[in-house]
Every structure is written in structure tokens, then in C-alpha cells.
Amino acid sequence: MSIVLIGAPAAGKTRVGKRLARRLGKAFIDTDHAVTEKHGPIPEIFSVHGEPHFRTLERAEVAAALTEDAVVSLGGGAVLDPLTQADLGSATVVLLTISAEAVSERIANDKRPLVTGIDAWKALVASRSELYERLADVAIDTSFRKPDVIVEEIVGILAERGIAVPTIDLPRIDLPTIDVPGEPGSSVSPAPEDDPLSGEQETHS
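Above: the chain sequence. Below: its structure as C-alpha cells.
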């Protein structure tokens, strides 16, 4: 089953998607990247051929990606296609949201054809928010949050929904033994540095 990330431009779908795929042991597919690899830069496609032509190319990549057992990142407007909306019914859809305050710095030097500034971004998000929310199984805010924290939140939600997720195997640490002075034949394993279960820890003010 596909795990699909949708949401506004610059919400972090690619960055989070890559880490989520690695965490789940799945392939990662970015449909915007797939279009770019085959047809060239998206801004150029928009300027030369127009948005409808881009949406046709995008739909083909989305349709192919959603047949894979992968984490899939969709472009912000990919969900506008009715066929894509129907296809998402058989996937687990995660909506990534972000505040205008958090996104403003990300889009400052952006080259996205439909995002010419924060006001354009706000208008775009407002026009799509209802659709995003209707299609999503779960929504997670990414504003000012580290990608790995977001990934673990998604993994937890997937597990709660009965979707198998791999556990993280912590490396085994073989600790050396040291002799206790005055007690021949006895030994003790030293606690690792900064181990929270080893007794009192140093505090730093």
C-alpha cells in the first residue's frame, strides 16, 4: 500500500517523505521530480506549454507512483485531478500542513510557478484546504519542527491504524568489566556515560 504525502507547496513533503521511506524500508517517489527528470524544469513547462499540459504529465506520474508499495510525495496541485482523488482512496494519505509564518522563509527565493510570494501562497492554500482535508486520513503540522520528529509521529499513527511498521533495532553495547579494588574476583560493568538510568547525572545550568 502507498503512503502518500499531500499538502501545500513548501510544507516539507519531499524532506519528510525521504526520511519516512527510509524509516519504513520503502521506496520513495517524488512525482514532481519524476516529471522534471522526463520533461525538464517545471517552471519551464508552465511557461512554454501552460499549466494544463503540466497537469497531464503530472497525472501520468501520479498514476504510476500510486501502483507502488512506496512513500509517495505529490505536488501541491496534484490532488486537483479527479482521477487522482479516486486513486487516493486505496492509499494511506497524510496531509502535511504548515503556517504562513513558517513557510515564508522557505519560499523567499522559490521558483514555483504558482507561488510568487506569501500572499499567493496563502490564496493557493485557502483554495485547496477543504480538498486536502477531505482526502487526508491524518493531518500533521510541520511548522518549525524537525523532520525526524514528524516522521516518528507519522510512524506512530500508522501503527495505531494497524499498518505494520519496522521497529528500530538499537545497537548492543558490550561493556567491559573492571575489578573492584579490595574485592578479589569481583567485577562491575561501568554505566555508559550520560545513561539516565545509571544514578545521578551531571546537571548543567
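Residues 3-160 form a domain with the Rossmann fold fold (CATH 3.40.50.300).
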